[in-house]
């Protein structure tokens, strides 16, 4: 600035906040043009005085501005009050007008779907199949048989462009929320809502694995659905976690976990043998912590869940390929099922019952590799490794489950140590600390289980069959009054 103004300038600066610096620049008027050009190039925001103060001396303008600042809060409140009054007067009327205009726009958009002659007209469009009977009845009642509703046969090319309307029972409908993140399933393919409604609680429950946490989650889910009746998103979450909590309770009973190792602590205190109560011997967290060999059975359970989950995805992929008449995809999916489900089952059965099925199982796996190569070429062979990686990913069920359960048990151990010091104060402090740690674990473990259960569905299993539709069914309807 000194170079531009030939040292005929003065600069005063102050930091307004962490990212903004304010400055007052005083310079000779003859340098106005080059100074403004320079500041605009440097991306400096210029604050201009109001027009009535533009020609006033600086000291007088500053005094006026300070005076005005005292009245700004009251002015802002007055403006807010005026805006509220305008909103109360006009909001309903304007939104109604907007809805009516939107209806007119939708009506104009529908005109190309009409064909007209001197004596007849034709309307074409899409409609869910289950709505045809009701619509036909309504049309006949209103127009006394003067309008005929006719269902036309759709060509394979038209099916590619067909909009999709989802229709699922109430118990599985909340799970549509998850796969809508990827889009609705392509017309004619498997709708995975029921699949998620069954396996999301199984995987989620296996990760949490605590009946106490499951009961709390169930109560919260029921409260949310009752409290927020008109809130679709909260109703959806309540429906999802209502089923997920049941999975937690069932797995918690199998693992003998109720707020960590609390049942074991109680039974140990009263010297009651633990073995009489365990439905799933050796799978409680304290034993895992003391004897690492029980990690392996949990890992096997997680991998078995992964094999079943991914194999069902392959089965759905096979169904989709059959429906779409894609013969090579049919061969590829059968090949993958032979490698990861049929072949290994035959091998395991052969070892278990000592019957010569092991060799047949190995042959089936080899044939599966050949079928995958034929159906999917190089991509089909690479997909074998991808599917193997998908199945191994389910080991996270074991890892996350043990981590959360150990934290729950540690909170009980800490409470026991503090409470063992004696006295009501120590016991109360121990219980409060345990409740605090359980609360943190409940939130973090629940969030982690939700994310990873979604991941195992949307990435590991859905990749075997899910095909998103090009567009969702949106019926023509009036939204205005």
Task: Write a short abstract of this structure.
The chain is built from 16 helices and four strands. It has helices at residues 2-5, 32-41, 58-110, 132-143, 156-160, 176-179, 193-208, 211-227, 232-255, 262-269, 285-290, 295-323, 327-353, 358-392, 395-419, 424-461; strands spanning 9-15, 21-27, 114-116, 121-123. Strands 1-2 form a two-stranded antiparallel sheet.
What does this protein look like?
With about 475 residues, the protein is mostly helical. The protein has a domain at about 175-465. It is built from 16 helices and 4 strands. It has helices at about 1-5, 30-40, 60-110, 130-145, 155-160, 175-180, 195-210, 210-225, 230-255, 260-270, 285-290, 295-325, 325-355, 360-390, 395-420, 425-460; strands at about 10-15, 20-25, 115, 120-125. The strands form 2 sheets. It has a two-stranded antiparallel ribbon. A two-stranded antiparallel sheet has the order 3-4. α7 (about 195-210) runs parallel beside α15, α7 (about 195-210) packs antiparallel against α16 (about 425-460) and α12 packs antiparallel against α13 (about 325-355). The longest helix is centred in the first third of the chain and has 53 residues, at about 60-110. Residues about 285-295 have low confidence and may be disordered.
